[in-house]
Amino acid sequence: MSKKLVLEHICKNFDSLIAVNDVNLVVEPGEFLCLLGPSGCGKTTLLRIITGFEQASSGTLSYNGKVINKVIPQKRDFGIVFQSYALFPNMTVKQNMAFGLNMRKMPQKLIDERVNEILKLVGLTDWQNHYPAQLSGGQQQRVALGRAIAIKPKVLLLDEPLSALDAKIRVRLRTVIKRLQQDLGITMIYVTHDQEEALSIADRVAVMKDGQVRQIGSPWEIYKAPKTSFVAQFVGTSNFISATKKNGKIQFGQREFVVSGLTDAAGETLHLAIRPEKIEFVAPPISPEQYVTSNIVEVVAEVITFLGAVVRITFLLEGKEMDVDLPEKEFEKIGLQRGEKLTLYFPPDAFHVYTELFQEVI
Ligand SMILES: Nc1ncnc2c1ncn2[C@@H]1O[C@H](COP(=O)(O)OP(=O)(O)OP(=O)(O)O)[C@@H](O)[C@H]1O
What we know:
alpha+beta; CATH 2.40.50.100; 28% helix; binds adenosine-5'-triphosphate; five-stranded antiparallel sheet; 2 domains; Rossmann fold; 11 helices; single chain
């Protein structure tokens, strides 16, 4: 029987507040699933229901074909890693890692073997006799990870494990976690509000809002085909244009755009999203006819931001601030300065079209 974790119609209320609202999920054995969403969307509550620290108000949670709603956390054999490392301060790295194995009364020889193996996996062999206070945050989280996987959990649940760490360490530890998951074949469910982290680490991402899963798919699917304007806005960067449809085209201020896949309804307000990297630079010369007919516009570079591999140029279109990302090499060739003009092309098939616009509350 396959060891799937299945959530069916899971709901959780705190008095009148609905924290989790009818979540249905199947997590495959060995899968890396990220629960991604803004603060308060219910991801931690959902994870706590899976750990057993929280009881669902309704719905069924099953693992390996058995309903586990009423099984206490210790009997679920699920490992947990929190944002706060929750290490035992008076125990060394090695003792922290051996803790769960000692509790299970494993023979000392096997404990030593297992701990040595885990120390290697998380890169802490040289630190095994240090105490948590003598370690950096990243090292402490490695200990917490090692301690959680030492007991060979069936499922490892991670709640924002990297959010207390600085950017460089976060990226490095992401790779450590991903490698552990692949090498050990552990099912992992990972909560984060960091979309970049979710896209880079997960096999599948479940994007949550208001206690519900709004879209689930591979990072590629979520990024390439966001089903709602909320997902388009929350995952990656999108420029939004609110415009009306006229004569099969989109009327945005004084301009018209050709957009692929428009519905038949005329006159309705549509919300178009286009990613900054989908807008293309057009090298001069450009004929006047091109400007009128082919989604080509001339804009002024208001702000230029270096992002490493790409350069982001902020411009105004019909009074709306937008971004285009150009590969650093292309930008260098163009030699653009702030305040100078550039010509851009909006490919018709690069737009995502929505009938509703999610307004972000900042
Ligand atoms: N024990 C509790 N009692 C009452 N309300 C709660 C409790 N736990 C969570 N909530 C509420 O449930 C909602 C979902 O909270 P939850 O912590 O699951 O969100 P989250 O997506 O993990 O957010 P964050 O990223 O900020 O931790 C929030 O409105 C929160 O205030």
